[in-house]
Write a structure and sequence with these properties.
CATH architecture: 4-Layer Sandwich
Structural class: alpha/beta
CATH topology: Metallo-beta-lactamase, Chain A
CATH superfamily: Ribonuclease Z/Hydroxyacylglutathione hydrolase-like
Number of helices: 10
Radius of gyration: 17 Å
CATH class: Alpha Beta
Strand order of the largest sheet: 6-5-4-3-2-1-14
Number of strands: 14
Strand content: 25-35%
Number of domains: 1
Distance between the termini: 10 Å
Length: 264
């Protein structure tokens, strides 16, 4: 049986990603309400009762808003580092402590037919991480909410079969938009979010390390839109001699509905 991966929700209003391999399935983040996650899972013929875990990247509400209800309703195990749990536990309500599994950067954890490990990401959260998820058919890597692309990140995800990577904002839209100056500065900092242009440069480097399938993720509703993200990334790739349509497979994640299923 092949593995599959798909964004259920993606963007500043909420994030959740589904990965399944040989009967083992999990979510990376649950940043919308439980009912919405249930509907999205039904749309891809997945059962929330069969989830083996929820992996949390960081404590911001657009990544954890539905975690508590999912844990209470389905007794879904949670995988999270201690620092992130310390903050998010204040907002998700009471959950069974036996469902909480603390992870460290040194851990490789096996869940059924899936193995995963975490790596630090530069974002303004207490201990933000991304995930490399090894399935029977290849690796799925998730790194959204990254202020800058680093060599450490590249090494962590090198050779992944598919990569969900942040393409958050267009600098001109952000600069001329309504956000206050302090928020604009936060977004553009090395611990904020990745611009379309920087995403394109990152993809060029990652493509040289063996990845050909990318999903542009976590687009800002106010400072970006799908066609702009794709076109900017494509133009940036051309500077490195890469044709986005010929050489790579690039999707743009949908904000409020599941994306196209990617089979590994």
């Amino acid at each position: 049986m092949s593995a599959r991966a798909v964004t259920l929700f993606s963007g500043s209003s909420g994030n959740s990603l589904f990965v399944e391999s040989d009967g083992t399935s999990l979510l990376v983040d649950a940043g919308v309400c439980c009912r919405s996650i249930e509907s999205a899972l039904a749309a891809i013929d997945a059962d929330p009762r069969r989830l083996s875990g929820i992996l949390v990247t960081h404590e911001h509400s657009d990544h954890v808003a539905g975690v508590g209800v999912m844990m209470r309703r389905y007794r879904t195990p949670l995988y999270v580092n201690k620092e992130t749990w310390r903050i998010m536990s204040r907002s998700i309500g009471k959950v069974d402590p036996q469902l909480i599994n603390f992870i460290t950067l040194a851990n490789t954890i096996k869940l059924g037919e899936i193995e995963f490990s975490s790596f630090r990401t530069p974002h303004d959260a207490v201990q933000s991480v991304g995930y490399r998820i090894e399935t029977s058919s290849g690796a799925v890597s998730v790194m959204t909410d990254i202020g800058t692309m680093t060599e450490q990140l590249q090494n962590a995800v090198a050779g992944s079969s598919v990569m969900f990577i942040e393409s958050n904002y267009d600098p001109l839209m952000l600069e001329h938009g309504a956000y206050p100056r302090h928020l604009k500065s936060r977004i553009t900092s090395d611990h904020g979010h990745l611009s379309n242009d920087d995403c394109g440069k990152a993809i060029a480097n990652l493509a040289r390390l063996g990845t050909v399938r990318f999903v542009l993720s976590h687009l800002s509703k106010e400072n970006n839109y799908p066609a702009l993200a794709y076109d900017t990334v494509s133009r940036r790739l051309q500077e490195f001699g890469i044709d986005a349509r010929r050489d790579l497979e690039i999707q743009v994640a949908r904000r409020q509905t599941p994306g196209d299923l990617i089979y590994l």
